[in-house]
Amino acid sequence: MARKAKASPTEDASGTFEERLAAKFELKLASQPLTSDIEEYISTQCAMLDYAIGRPGIPVGRVTVFYGKEGAGKSSVAYHVLAETQRRGGLAILIDAEHRYSRDRGERLGLIPARLVMPTPTTLEDCFVVIEEIIKWVREEDPARLVCIVIDSLSALDAKKNLDLAVGEQAQLGLAARTISREMQRLGPMLAEHKVALIIVNQLRQHLDIMGDPRSRERRKAMKRHTMTGEGALVFWGSLLVYFTSTGVIKDDDAQTGITVRAEIRKSSIAPEGKQTLFDIDAIDGVDKEGSQLDLLEILKVVTKAGPWYSLDGIKFQRRQFSTVLAERPELLQKIQEAPLLWRPDPNEKAEEPECPGQ
Hints:
Elements: H1 17-24, E1 41-42, H2 47-53, E2 58-59, E3 63-68, H3 74-87, E4 91-96, H4 103-108, E5 116-117, H5 124-141, E6 147-152, H6 160-163, H7 175-194, E7 197-203, E8 205-206, H8 217-222, E9 226-227, H9 231-237, E10 238-252, E11 255-268, E12 276-282, E13 286-287, H10 289-299, E14 304-306, E15 309-312, E16 315-318, H11 322-328, H12 331-338
Parallel strand pairs: 3-7, 3-10, 4-5, 4-6, 6-7
Antiparallel strand pairs: 1-2, 8-9, 10-11, 11-12, 12-13, 14-15, 15-16
Helix pairs in contact: 2-10, 5-7, 7-9
């Protein structure tokens, strides 16, 4: 027998039924501000990557994961996000676990050394403790300041128990992954509550089951070839997972001056996923910002291309002349900034599986 609803007006002096329920048990309604609300984004300073993400950058209050093999441009893009944070007056924090940060290159990418905070934890546990303490202190001092934290890279850190082992002693497999999973259960909600952006840079490594596997070649090919530190926890907690691949090198005569990068959105809880994009990263100056903007305007059909020439409202120019065109036509920047919100998935484009590591 169906339960009969008690006849009562939809609203009365004490509010709706849902409002009374929320007031009784101190609950929230979805119409009220929630910790999961994303209030702002931080641009990657790469128009093509922002367009692929489908939003004006990475989300503040969520976890973003940049992963891929070495030399794919992950750290460079993360530095650009920190530079954008500083440009907007925010707090940029870089945990350089690999001890490879170059001050000179950081400045070329737009970072201000005097405003870049660089903690130096030596273990996974210390890393997460430092992040939690920084978040608490910053929000006590300035509740509204934009904050972005980058861990570069998570694969360079290990659990304290493994690091304390003597030479020759066997490390405990899976301990780092369990440590990350446990710490993320505390850190994830804290990032959302205090509106702090966290970027985790991670390296792919060969899966242990593949190395020296005696099974048939066919079975080895069917297995997952690569994994990364804390894969399961990062796939779960990451709101945005971007997979970076170097697809080629850029040369000036015989000298390599940069790389071409393919970035693929493997997981996204903020926009449609599966989009891929290409952009160039210079070995000194980082992301080719103007080249990325020009490529985006071509996709938007604002400019047309014929060979090495581009055309805009009857004006023809080459790629190296785009900075002059952009200075004369500031309205183009508005189109570029609005473009990420205009992206829609191509129904004819088959998206890759959103599994974290590459196969």
